[in-house]
# Entry
Amino acid sequence: MTEAKHVITMLVDNQPGVLARVVGLFGGRGFNIESLCVAETTNPEISRITLVTRADPLVMEQIQKQLRKLINVIKVRDMDKSKAVQREMALICVNAKPEHRAEVLRIVDIFRCKVVDTGIEHYILEVTGDEGKLAAIINLLKPIGIKKIARTGIVALFREPK
# Structure
């Protein structure tokens, strides 16, 4: 079987050590976590963890079963893209020498992102979208010169019933 990308969302008790147990489960079994986002929900006693990994379907089923057995894990779900809204945010520091500024600003306009910081020879851009949008803007900015980048990883929520 072939490995596929899985976005796992889980609700957990907002307590020290919970994240360490979740990450330890993956590390102890030799699975890579491609991205990980954790934040409090509207209830300060509960956090949402959104985690991206790659595994074949049988392994993914086992991972979910083991996650559900962990203390302080309330709910675990594998997100299907068609049933969820998934986004990622990136801050990209790009060269913005005078000869490149207009081109960078055109890219900002096309991708509906924003300049959040400027300097003599740089812009820091804030970009939000799906993985394809981020990959596209990064590819366009590479020839201009990306100085550094910080990405959140995927955050996602299931769509509400219509």
